[in-house]
Design brief:
This is Glycosyltransferase. Keywords: Transferase. GO terms for molecular function: glycosyltransferase activity. With 394 residues, the protein is of the alpha/beta class. It contains 17 helices and 13 strands. A seven-stranded parallel sheet has the order 3-2-1-4-5-6-7, sandwiched between helices. It has a six-stranded parallel sheet with strand order 10-9-8-11-12-13, sandwiched between helices. Helix 13 crosses helix 16. The protein is globular, with a radius of gyration of 23 Å. The chain starts with a strand and ends with a helix.
Length: 394
């Protein structure tokens, strides 16, 4: 039985972490023994633990020896020496708990995990596979150049979620294209079941006071600049401003309390759209919202191959996205929605209005997007590809 060490950056309920969870379930069925190392915890932690042993990298201590002792060490010029020794002891303890010498292969999920990978001292004989979900913006936000460079040097094979992602690591980081495999793992049967279940639930839009005839333009994802939450609000202003008499509502699912939410709400209020633009906090009921979208607006400035497009597609909702913002155009193409030039909000507004005004085209494009997802991303075929790769490397 092959023993795998999996490394992830946290257990939050987001795309890359959910893909890892699905992958772990499939690998367990294939007979792999796994140990998961996480940089931090999160809502998915219990689900991870139901599959295998999970180790969380310990948070740094507030003090090396104590508040007063640390001040004395600092004055004596000894604090850094004691701190480095503390870090070494911690790393040795983690290495021992992971049993690195008995690991057959390491799978690193996201380059964000390079922060912890570099501290493990993985034996040279152990092959490393890195599953990359990030493009340039995320790389700059979530990695350090030396840590990422070390991870890529040590990586035997790279899994990329889209052609755009593979091209980025080939062109910007010099990774050998012969050692890159396109790999997208989507548990389509489970997603289909979840979508159908969501559709059978009572409409959740009653809680927002939306009328039964409302046309809903949806967005979904983390609240951050890269995801284009601000662009979504501007887009809403343009679309609603062109047909103010129509009952068009914009709903973004996944904006938690915080300064960005406050800024977005201020924009919404100043634009007079409080009754038309709705920001929903992160929720496990995301599909109850998404399954009743009429159009999905992917406003991301960068998104390698987002899970939300699959969720929208399997809900038979057409997608409008930006060219040059990641891998979504590879799936949407010309028959699953529309691809508009990067940051062309006028173009996106026009395409959204085209879809809202043409129910038949909307249904046809949503149905075709769903068909393409099922045709191109069968989960069983994906895991077979990965198992074959693991066998070759080990």
């Amino acid at each position: 039985m092959k023993k795998l060490l999996l490394i992830g950056h946290d257990a939050n309920r987001a795309g890359a972490q959910l893909v890892l969870l699905n992958l772990m379930r499939l690998l367990k069925v294939e007979g792999f023994q796994m140990h998961l190392l996480l940089g931090e915890g999160g809502p998915l932690l219990d689900e991870y633990r139901s599959i295998c042993t999970v180790t969380i990298w310990p948070a740094p201590d507030r003090y090396v020896m104590g508040a007063v002792a640390d001040k004395i060490l600092g004055k004596l010029g000894l604090w850094d020496r004691f701190y480095q020794q503390q870090m070494q002891d911690r790393q040795q303890a983690i290495r021992a708990s992971l049993g690195l010498d008995s690991i057959d292969l390491v799978l690193v999920n996201t380059v964000t995990s390079s922060r912890w990978f570099g501290q493990l001292g993985i034996p040279d004989k152990t092959p490393v596979v890195t599953f990359v979900h990030e493009l340039d913006m995320s790389v700059r936000m979530y990695t350090q150049p030396d840590e990422l460079a070390y991870l890529l040097r040590r990586t035997n094979h790279l899994l990329a979620v889209s052609r755009a992602t593979a091209r980025y690591y080939e062109e910007q980081h010099g990774f050998d294209p012969a050692r890159i495999t396109l790999f997208t793992l989507i548990d389509t049967p489970a997603l289909e079941r979840n979508v159908q279940h969501a559709r059978q639930q009572p409409t959740i839009y009653k809680t927002l006071g939306l009328p039964d005839n409302a046309l809903i333009v949806g967005g979904c994802g983390n609240a951050e600049w890269r995801k284009g939450n601000d662009l979504f609000v501007t887009l809403a202003r343009q679309v609603i401003g062109r047909v103010p008499e129509a009952s068009i509502h914009f709903v973004w699912v996944g904006v938690p309390p915080g300064s960005l939410r406050d800024d977005l709400l201020l924009d919404i209020r100043k634009a007079g759209m409080e009754q038309r633009v709705h920001l929903i906090p992160p929720t496990p009921d995301v599909l109850r919202y998404m399954s009743h979208f009429d159009v999905f607006a992917l406003c991301s400035r960068e998104d390698p191959y987002p899970l939300v497009v699959f969720e929208a597609g399997l809900s038979e909702v057409p997608v409008v996205c930006f060219d040059g913002a990641g891998g979504s155009p590879e799936l949407v193409e010309t028959d699953g929605g529309f691809v508009v030039p990067y940051l062309d909000l006028d173009g996106m507004s026009n395409r959204i209005l085209d879809l809202l005004n043409d129910p038949e085209q909307r249904r046809a494009m949503g149905k075709r997007l769903s068909e393409k997802i099922l045709e191109r991303h069968p989960a069983h075929q994906s895991v077979e590809t990965l198992v074959t790769l693991f066998q070759q490397l080990t």
